[in-house]
Amino acid sequence: MKDRQDAYGRMLVDALESGQPIMEIVEREDGFMMGSRFGTTLYLAPFRRWPPRQRRAMRLARGRVLDVGSGGGRVTLHLQEREQEVVAIDNSPLAVEACRRRGVLDARVLPIEHVDDSLGVFDTIVMFGNNLGLLGGAARGKRLLRRLHRISAPRARILGETLDPYATDDAAHLAYHERNRRRGRMGGQIRIRVRYRDYATPWFDFLFLSRDELEELLEGTGWGLRRTIEDEPPLYVAVIEKQGSS
Question: What is the mean predicted confidence (pLDDT) over 198-220?
Fold first, then answer.
């Protein structure tokens, strides 16, 4: 990633250095602009300030953990306090720099699609901050889920956060869902980039999933949806386990 493309990481480092929250701006391919009400506040938040669904889900994070899309490292730092071994990965070099500055012991610049068995075996894979969306789409999602299956222990689980994109009456979102379907894409498969000052990430696909769509996506990957944890619909954390595990 070129320097001016690392908008997300630059935002995190600036927030860390200034001690002031910065709103995250996301641009969708159709020109729709979205601003996070949490911004960097949540990305750098201590455990006590996380949403209840995330705090509840963390009780299920056992053994060796892979923190996918680690951002500012909040998940990894919490698990390190619990004396768990964690590998934090992010495709943003500056986000990884922020992780290291904050005390993350093992932070690596690594996109999810490059994860392989050189990282070792994991008991839990955490994908918070809607990072289940990194699955990107139907075909890519199945490939990535199979890849995660290969690097995980027999009783492994994924704790992945997303939102149901169809729980809306916003005409702009509904029209975008329909446009996606006409193009042969999943309704909640959005193409976006993050903007910050004069920085902009490359465009990328990000996937929001209903529960039924998630179950369908998991078919044939060796994973199954065990349950969901909710507190603020349409957001939820999916507890995904290797099939046959108990």
Answer: 98
